[in-house]
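Students often ask why inverse folding is considered easier than folding. One informal answer: many sequences map to the same fold, so there is more than one right answer. In these notes we will look at a single instance of the problem. The structure comes first.
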């Protein structure tokens, strides 16, 4: 499972012009599910999202996690995170999980994060979405449950 995570001042996602998810300060995470992902990958990504210390404390140091600032999560499915452009000009998505299984794991990640008691908003799996965000910093982190980076 792969994630591109941005610290945001605010973010929202729309489907067909209608806002379906919105947060203030928090983390916007684009999630790509890879073939073979399972419960351990969900746990790795959710633990990192809950605990990554990317918010400033009173000394302007990144020492606080999303819970400590009472922030929220906006979780967006994005299979293109597993696109491979090493050959040719058209990306290969062979590493991306098939849609049914990917949707199941994406839902499990959202349920896992919801256990934090923090706001968890989400996009619509498989839908064409428009995401607006204000990256705060900017701060952007890459996560991969297989630790390839």
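Output (designed amino acids):
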């Amino acid at each position: 499972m792969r994630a591109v995570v941005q610290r945001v001042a605010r973010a929202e996602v729309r489907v067909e012009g209608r806002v379906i998810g919105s947060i203030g300060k928090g983390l916007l995470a684009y999630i790509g599910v890879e073939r073979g992902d399972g419960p351990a990958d969900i746990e790795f990504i959710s633990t990192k999202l809950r605990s990554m210390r990317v918010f400033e404390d009173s000394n302007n140091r990144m020492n606080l996690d999303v819970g400590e600032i009472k922030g929220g999560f906006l979780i967006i499915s994005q299979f293109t995170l597993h696109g491979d452009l090493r050959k040719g000009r058209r990306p290969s998505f062979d590493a991306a999980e098939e849609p049914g299984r990917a949707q199941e794991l994406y839902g499990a990640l959202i349920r896992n994060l919801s256990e934090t008691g923090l706001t968890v908003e989400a996009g619509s799996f498989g839908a064409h979405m428009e995401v607006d965000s204000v990256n705060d910093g900017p701060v952007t982190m890459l996560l991969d449950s297989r630790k390839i980076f």
